[in-house]
Amino acid sequence: MELTYYFGLGDNLHAALRTFLFGVRNPSLRMERGVLLKGDLANLSVGKGVVIQAGSVIHAGGQGWCDGRGRVEIGDGATISPNCVLYGSGGGGIRIGKRFDCGPFVGIYASRTDYAAGNGHVFRPVVIGDDVVVFSHVVISPGVTIGDGAVIAAGSVVINDVPAGALVAGVPACVVRSCAKRSA
Asked: Which domains does the chain have, with CATH numbers?
C-alpha cells in the first residue's frame, strides 16, 4: 500500500474523533454518521435539540485561506438535512435562528472566490432568522439576510436579502408572495 493511504486513514480518524468529541460536549445535539466538522470547533455553536443529518459538512473557519476567521451558529431546534454544506468562513460567518428547517443538499456560504482579485476570497455574513424553511437544493450566497418565517423554494439561488414572511423562488430567487404567519 502507498504511504498516502495511511495518511488518509489518519485524517479520517482525526475528523471522526473531533466530530465525536463535539457531540459529547453538546449532549442535546443529534449528529448522524458521516457528518464532517471542519475548521476551528471553538467557532461552532449549536443550540438545544439541533439535528445534523448524514453527509453534511460544516466549516467553521480557522484555516489559512480565511485568515483563521469563521463562525457558524445554529439555533435551538434547527434541522440540517442530509448532504448540506455550511461554509461559515471569514469575519461574519453564518448565524441560523431557532427552528430552522433545511432540506437536503442545501449550500449556505459566507465566502466565495473573488474572481476580480484573482485568487482571493470575499467574506460576507449570512443571517437566517427564526422559523425559516429552506427546501432542497437551495444555494444561499454570501451577504444574504433571510427574515423570520421566510420560505425558500427548492432549487432557488438566493443572492439578495429575503424579507420576513416571504416565499421566494427561482434563479436568482425573487419574492413570489408573502406567507401567512404560521403557528408554532
From this structure: 3-178 (2.160.10.10)
